[in-house]
Amino acid sequence: MSEYGILVDYEYCTACHACEVACKQEYKRPAGKHAGVKVIEEVHQFPGGGMDVVNYPLFTKGCNMCRPRTKKGLMPSCVQHCMAACLEFGRLEELAKKMGQKKRISLWRP
């Protein structure tokens, strides 16, 4: 599993928390307890009143990329339920090729 990762495109994350909810449900976590992913919202204020909001799906060391699901050929729960399609699961070398094409992107692996 170490050759796989999750590509996160922060530019398109809408902070819907679907990835967070899917992860909690997959691992039966109670409300208020996070499993493998947590969405953080960061607001940047600019002089003159402008602002930029960036949403960060942050993966924790509790994430195992849904190993039981991926062994069956399924996507990790967070990736499958991401409504903005800003999470992508795959081989690290394939995901790394896409990193230069985006502005706000990161590659996560356990």
Biggest pleated sheet: 3 strands, antiparallel
**What's the Cα radius of gyration?**
15 Å
Largest beta sheet: strand ordering: 4-1-5
Based on the coordinates given, report the CATH architecture.
2-Layer Sandwich
Quote the CATH topology.
Alpha-Beta Plaits
* Class by SSE composition: alpha+beta
**Number of distinct beta strands:** 5
User: Termini, distance in Å?
Assistant: 9 Å
Low-confidence stretches: none
Tertiary shape:
globular
Number of helices, counting only DSSP H or I runs of 4 residues or more: 4
Mean pLDDT: 90
Domain unit count? 1
Q: Beta-sheet strand percentage?
A: 25-35%
The residue fraction in helices comes out at 10-25%
CATH class category name: Alpha Beta
- Which series of helices and strands comes N to C? EHEEHHEHE
For this entry, give a set of tags:
3-stranded antiparallel beta sheet; Alpha-Beta Plaits; 110 residues; two-stranded antiparallel ribbon; 4 helices; 24% helix; alpha+beta
